[in-house]
Design brief:
five-stranded antiparallel β-sheet, globular, 3 helices, alpha+beta, four-stranded antiparallel β-sheet, 30% helix
């Protein structure tokens, strides 16, 4: 009877496992998992996170209510300029936008403001067969063109534009004029 009570008490500690060795392994595994969860939890708590109100802040002294809404437009020029994707920007926040169904269009990057100047960082527009990339200073209400690109079964000019409204029409008109001027120069 004494041997049986020792066996029951040991197994109760190890989740009522009928075998002593397996119960020890279960306890060790549970012990390691709990330490791992504690380590991950502490690492997560020490990761710096920006407060929600900081994403709209442009610079010190400027209130977020003074910041106009900005929209980024992305398109290509085949026979005529066309807009593929648009998104509302939050200055300083990374974004990713996808759309177009089977066309695999995507737009990603970040736009920051430094002393009143807008800067596009790692801006990438992909329209399936080719993509365009831009990194540098930009102006609102004016189109800017990809600095480099990649192709897989096609190639063409990629344009971007930042505006204060969601209508890409004025930027598309400027892209059209730009390419019309290039065609006239080459004739």
């Amino acid at each position: 009877m004494k041997l049986e009570s020792q066996f029951v008490s040991r197994c109760w500690i190890s989740f009522q496992c009928p075998f002593r060795v397996r119960g020890w392994i279960v306890l060790r595994f549970a012990h390691l998992v709990s330490w791992g969860m504690l380590a991950v939890g502490l690492a997560g708590c020490t990761t710096p996170k920006a407060p929600a109100d900081e994403t709209e802040r442009v610079s010190e002294g400027e209130a977020s209510s003074d910041v106009p809404k900005l929209y980024l437009h992305f398109g290509t020029v085949q026979s005529d300029p066309q807009r593929l994707l648009s998104t509302r920007l939050t200055v300083g926040v990374w974004f990713y936008v996808a759309g177009g169904g089977d066309e695999y269009w995507s737009l990603e990057g970040r736009v920051t403001r430094n002393e009143g100047t807008l800067r596009a960082e790692r801006l990438a527009g992909n329209c399936g067969p080719f993509a365009g990339f831009y990194d540098g200073a930009v102006q609102t209400e004016e189109p800017f063109f990809a600095q480099s690109g990649a192709g897989s079964g096609g190639a063409g000019p990629v344009w971007f534009g930042i505006s204060t409204n969601s209508d890409p029409g004025p930027i598309i008109d400027m892209v059209r004029l730009h390419f019309k001027g290039l065609l006239q120069q080459n004739q």
